[in-house]
Write a structure and sequence with these properties.
This protein is an alpha/beta fold. Helix content is about 20%, strand content about 25%.
Length: about 475
């Protein structure tokens, strides 16, 4: 009977309408209001074409001055003033590669991708590019093949474990439209995908957000640009946020897809080729201003084949089932604790989303679990921020369980996602639920709490299978 109840509840989750900040429960092409999305921090790189009037070595200095630590070089940029006509690419000698790596280490900059680079449709020419990428520690090759035979690209991408991202130039480029990329990579290795150039889409007259939605799950790289015009091939780049690209919604969509790659800034304006840095700096400031999860660590995130439980352990009865595609944890059985064992946290801010299957759903978020749990004594030496809408007082949602009652009720109706923001600083716990402060408590021994630690693990409770709990989007910021 219990198994049947679980199935009914899972089906209920799938059918009910929700407001979500991940792609879970969202039908293809359908999105919530992007204004409601908590934009995550996506690592920023600079596309070297931005500084194509300078050498690669000069570019390193300029990127370092911007505070950016990731770079996407292109094939053909002059290496340095000292090396004359030598250009960055597979023809570099071992000695020149050694020099490049030395300078990268000096500046603390990593090469994360390479392109746009093309090669002939034969294994010898293609392998030369893949060999170079591996030597340089590059894991994504950006290219724009003029042929439809992707067998060699697919073979080498899997062999070298290097992603291949197909780039889009504007019309009449072969890949100007996202559906062309999808047609060519359909049914092929997951290592093949798209390099989403938002500016070139705009020059073709394509809405970048709609194109990103169409390419969901196959985006390997992003060239971020903002333009003041649609459908004009010679339109120039403008400051992020001042054009028509809608950079906020672009980043919100990438957040919904939990995009794990890099955003390569490529600023193209003929009046600024000699000094694009001021515009890039303003663009970086804009991105930071709309990023919600600044300086947060995502502690439940995708690996090579989807979301994984890497770094997590479980104590006690039951378990959490993880959907590798959506990153949703669903509690089964209990009462147990799913705890993040990779790190202890002292002062921190923890944010996550949770959803209750029924109004009697019982769960909680444990903070500062002092030691690896091997019996139930952890409940007496750590705090549980309660989830149970049907309880009262010190056992109701938002309470420090068995110790301090919430100031108000702020949960969403059963079946909708809720957002918890839990701060633990010194001996004070502050809890916000859906943007409203429900708890601000200076801790003291009370109820089941005998004492607590200055640091500890974070854990999620699976209570039982009769009323399912789900979690997703788990971020922590150490203070």
């Amino acid at each position: 009977m219990k198994r049947r109840i679980v199935s009914i509840l899972v089906l209920t989750f799938v059918l009910m309408g929700t407001i979500s900040v991940s792609t879970a429960d969202i039908k293809p092409g359908v999105r919530p209001d992007y204004a409601d999305v908590h934009i995550k921090e996506i690592p920023i790189a600079v596309q070297c074409w931005t500084f194509h009037k300078f050498t690669f070595m000069e570019t390193l200095q300029k990127v370092d001055a911007l505070g950016v630590k990731y770079l996407q070089p292109y094939r053909g940029q002059k290496l340095s003033k000292e090396t004359g006509d030598v250009v960055f690419g597979p023809d570099l000698t071992d000695e020149q590669i050694k020099l490049v790596k030395s300078k990268l280490m000096e500046y603390g900059i990593s090469l994360v991708s390479y392109g746009v680079v093309n090669f002939e449709n034969n294994e010898t020419d293609a392998r030369k590019v893949f060999d170079f990428a591996r030597k340089m520690g590059i894991w994504t090759i950006v290219t724009e093949p003029q042929y439809d035979d992707y067998e060699i690209i697919e073979k080498l991408a899997d062999e070298y474990r290097i992603n291949v991202a197909v780039h889009n130039h504007p019309v009449p480029s072969k890949y100007a439209r996202p559906e062309t990329v999808l047609t060519n990579i359909a049914g092929r290795s997951d290592r093949l995908g798209a390099c989403a150039d938002t500016g070139h889409w705009m020059r073709t007259g394509i809405n970048p957000v709609e194109a990103l939605v169409a390419l969901e799950g196959r985006i390997k790289d992003v060239h971020l640009k903002d333009l003041g015009e649609f459908g004009k091939k010679d339109a120039h780049d403008v400051l992020f946020g001042s054009g028509l690209a809608n950079v906020h919604d672009i980043l919100a969509e990438l957040t919904l897809q939990d995009y794990q790659g890099y955003i390569s800034i490529e600023h193209e304006h003929p009046d600024e080729w000699d000094n694009p840095s001021p515009s890039i700096k303003k663009g970086l400031d804009y991105i930071r201003s709309i990023t919600y999860y600044k300086d947060y660590e995502q502690i439940l995130k995708p690996g090579g084949n989807g979301y994984t439980k890497h770094g997590w352990n479980h104590y006690g009865p039951g378990y959490f089932e993880l959907d590798p595609k959506t990153g949703i944890l669903t509690g089964q059985g209990g009462m147990g604790l799913f705890w993040y064992s990779a790190k202890k946290y002292g002062d921190f801010v923890l944010e996550l989303d949770y959803r209750c299957g029924m109004d009697i759903t019982n769960s909680g978020v444990f903070v500062r679990v002092p030691d690896m749990p091997f019996n139930n004594s952890y409940i007496n030496h750590s705090f549980e921020i309660q989830i149970c809408d049907a309880e009262k007082g010190i056992h109701r949602t938002g309470s420090a369980y068995d110790a301090e009652a919430p100031k108000l009720n702020a949960w969403n109706p059963t079946g909708e996602w809720n957002h918890y923001k839990i701060s633990f600083i010194g001996d004070t716990i502050t809890v916000e639920l859906n943007g409203k402060e429900v708890l601000d408590w200076k801790c003291e021994p009370r109820g089941k709490i005998r004492d607590w630690s200055k640091d500890g693990y974070i854990g999620l409770q699976n209570h039982d299978s009769n009323a399912i709990i789900q979690f997703k989007n788990i971020y922590v910021k150490e203070l």
